[in-house]
Amino acid sequence: MSQENFKKSIENIKKQFFCCVLIKNLNIESIENLSSWDNQNTLIEETVNSQQILKYPIKISYQTAFIKHIIEVLIKQNAEINDVVYDALGRLMALIDSKINFKHYLFNEERIILMENSSIISEGTTGLCTWRASLILSEWSLENKEIFMNKRILELGSGIGLTGIVITKYCSPKKYIFTDCHDSVLKNLKENINLNLNSSNKVNEVRKVSWETVNSDTKEIYECDVTVAADVVYDSKLFLPLQNTFKFLLRRGTCSAIFLSCTERNEDTLNEFLNLLLVDNFEIENLKVPSPKYFNWDCNLIVKMFKITHNNRL
Ligand SMILES: C[S@@+](CC[C@H](N)C(=O)[O-])C[C@H]1O[C@@H](n2cnc3c(N)ncnc32)[C@H](O)[C@@H]1O
314 CA to middle of ligand 1, Å? Predict the structure, then answer.
């Protein structure tokens, strides 16, 4: 029984480690019988020394902090520390952080690997890492697959692609159009698509689209059935172009609804955007935000989800 519990907790820690959940939230203390050298060996082999991590490394400083935390926990438990733990620490301390890192999202024997930039704003864009709203929209999509099944889906501000990869892989869309305005983001996005989607689920396209230039000539982007977007409502300078894009999609295009996932960093900013939509006769339905099941996120921060529609077509 104790070995079974150990296996379960290792699986849990591994899943969190692979996508860099905050060290303080990992609960290494809960691993059963970590004082056993065999168990310490398994923990190291399944995490920092695993082939997947060696091939597609997560941030080195995160891995180093992970081992240091294990050592702290073992010291508190008065446990003797296996040399493999110190060897792993030594190997990692000789390495330096790279600008480009990977994150692995493990669920149901499946894995999504995303290449991302380690700083949240780099090259003047917020699009080179995965944001919480995207994890939540991905989770929500897995709970609401029927919305996407056999539909043409458009994504606005795709960033490095988690939501689109999840929908393409698991929700059987007819077509998925990833869009973003930033060249480095689009380059990174294409690499992540190649890393995760094989020819059997290549129903996708990647397009460069700026909300500022959406007009009646950009017809191809609003030939879709459903639109999704995660964390695109954060800068009031972008509100008018975004509202205009919504108008084209829902009033001129074939899109029936936009599913939005928004991190509420500032209540007034989000409300400002929602009011702009209400004044323009859009309808806004609040959706139930899912609890973390396949993906991990910090539930202390507020994320809201909305379904946006408009009754009057032009
Ligand atoms: C905060 S990131 C969110 C990325 C991704 N959806 C996620 O949640 O991880 C915002 C994204 O919107 C894109 N973006 C910002 N302004 C834009 C605009 N005017 N037109 C199109 N995309 C834009 C950025 O390049 C970036 O990828």
Answer: 27
166 lines ligand 1 (CB under 6 A): no
The Cα–Cα gap between 309 and 138 comes to 20
For the chain, what is the radius of gyration of the CA atoms? 22
Q: Is 310 in the pocket of ligand 1 (CB under 6 A)?
A: no
The rounded Å distance from CA 181 to ligand 1 centre is 7
How many Å apart are CA 59 and CA 117, to the nearest integer?
A: 10
- In the chain, what are the domain boundaries? 2-98, 120-310
Q: Is the dihedral of CA 235, 236, 237, 241 positive or negative?
A: positive
Nearest to 136 by CA among 308, 303, 265, 306: 303
Q: What is the DSSP letter of 183?
A: H
pLDDT digits (tens, 9 = 90+) for 75-93: 999 999 999 999 999 999 9
**From the CA of 210, how far away is ligand 1's center (Å)?**
9
CB count in 10 Å sphere of residue 108: 8
pLDDT in tens, 11-28: 999 999 999 999 998 989
From residue 118, how far is each of 20, 58, 235, 277, 310 by CA, in Å? 11, 10, 22, 34, 38
User: 112 - beta bridge partners?
Assistant: 105
CA-nearest residue for atom 26, ligand 1, is: 127
* Parallel/antiparallel/unpaired status of strands 282-287 and 257-263: unpaired
Looking at residue 121, what is its pLDDT?
Answer: 66
Structure tokens at 151: 């539909």
Q: Indicate the top mutation candidate among 116, 155, 180 to test ligand 1's pocket, ranked by most ligand atoms within 8 A of CB.
A: 180
Whether domain 120-310 has CATH 3.40.50.150: yes
